[in-house]
Amino acid sequence: VEHRLESLKSDTKESALGGCSTFALSTFLQRDGIINNDQLQLMVDILQAKQPPSTLIQIWNGETLKAQDGVRNVYLIILAAGEHFFVIHLDIQERTYHIGMYLLCARAIFELLEGDSATSYIVSCDGTIQTIMRIAHGEFGCEFVEGDPLQHGRQGKDTVNCAFCSINTIAHKTLGEALWTVPEAYTYRVRRFLEIVSQMDNAMDTT
Questions:
Q1: Helix (H, G, I), strand (E, B) or coil at 146
Q2: What is the DSSP string of 51-114?
Q3: How remote is the C-alpha of 53 from its chain's centroid?
Q4: Mean pLDDT over all residues of the chain?
């Protein structure tokens, strides 16, 4: 397995999956590597392919929701204050929203930041949630009330894996995937890397 990983890390061959190379994905194999939006989108695409048509997963672009006929559940991955990803689940049928990876990390951020920095982070999260609820009301024609929080892994003071934790929060809710844990953080990164590479290999085989 280690030999295969080293081979993939040094491979600069581009794939048919978004023109991405395995070398560009080497951030996944760095314990403290922070992935970018394109890399997060790859994980979202793979997770979306495992969902029924009634479930939609998207990275929140700050402006619109993708309302589609037949969609009951919308999962939004949100970047707050340019620092932290968290998840909101909109249950269209029940008219509820459910938050994951927010309050816990809000408490942790107070331990890592001081004064205005911590305050601006929490204000950003609150403001983002309010904005989404306002847009959801216009998009779906109903008010959403807050429901039970989503179950999620306890990230604690880990500051580099929130994107992976967000993917795991959705996968746990929709597919029953085991919750992310700090001791398994690097293993989880490797699994997601190998899953993307497998999709890349499949895409190349069909071209």
A1: strand
A2: S-TTEEEEE--SS-----TT--EEEEEEEETTTEEEEEEEETTTTEEEEESSHHHHHHHHHHS-
A3: 19
A4: 79
